Amino acid sequence: MSVTWLSQLRHAFVNDECFHARVTTPEGVTPGRESDRVRVISAPKQDTPKEGLRAGETQVTSTAERHKRRSRSRTSTPPTTRPPRLMLAKAPFWHRAAEWLLHALAITAVIAIVLILVFIAKEAAPIFYSKEVRGEVTLAKMWWPQLWPGYDESASIWQPVSDIPKFGLWPLILGTIKVTVVAMAVSVPLGVGAAVYVSQYAGARTREIVKPVVELLAGIPSVVLGFFALMVMATWFQNTFHLESRLNALVSGVALSFAVIPVIFTLSEEALRAVPRSYVEASTALGAARWQTIARVILPAASPGIAAGVALGLGRAVGETMIVLMASGNAAIVSASLSDSARTIAATIAAELAEVVFGGAHYTVLFFLGTLLFLVTFGINTVGDWAIRRMKRRLGSAT
Fold this sequence. Notes:
- By secondary structure, the chain is mainly alpha-helical.
- Helices cover 66% and strands 1% of the residues.
- The chain is built from 15 helices and two strands.
- Helix 3 (93-124) packs across helix 15 and helix 14 runs antiparallel to helix 15.
- The relative contact order is 0.09.
């Protein structure tokens, strides 16, 4: 009987060993690893074979029951399945309608630009195929100087209303360049310098006064700035610098800079304030002076934003109309002097489009100028965006 009891006990121990069941053996503690060591319950004292047999049978029965319960729990555990997919509630109708409206507005802006280009290009297209238009003007006559009756040498002249219409573009292109160069030469130093002062030197109260005043210039209508240049600035420049022409490229360029300064100032100030504070602290910790930190750390780090402001300001200067129309003198002459009157492309379109014959050569050439101005402005913005991206990659801030 004792042999059978020991055999059954060893069989139960082998079955339950992996589950760390409590085992009773006559030998005491079961040998093995420390982590695998199980709690051992010493067998009851065998006074008689019958008492030992009952104790062994009771222990085997309890061990077998525990084994069955664990086996049943393992088999009853449901198989592992993928978690249910998260399903969001359907957005309300007004939310979807607002999203569609925003998408439509974004697409409309792009479509509007494309349609504008298509319209002005369509009106300018007859210069390439219309016999009536090409009888008066061709691309060669527009771009290359011509020897006109009454002139001793070839010249590019803009006189569309005359016995012999002349549509030379170089007086308009040169006038646009002169006025734009003067405007950018004045607005870039003032705009960037004001941005540096407001963002780096000015106190909170000074900043609250200077920044809104500079940005207020953007809200002044261009016709008001043109009237101010016509009545005040032109007289002051002529008396101060003894200019021969009262209205000239210098006056119109300086007046135009008042419309460009807010654009450059706003974007430059935001770019300067966006430079991480850690850059300034690191430069100061290395012993750099305030001006050295600004010149060698802050300005290079903010250069992409400053370049964006300059590019937008350049586009504004090229396409401005009323200020230049009122303050430049509107003389289409080929001259490199800033003291001479000038005529820009935008001012020419504004001054002459209302008086031309619909579909005529003059009408077609004005729309050709509009297409040229549109492409030049688009090209400036594209080159500016490319330069900004290149600058960001060079500075290591592109993502």
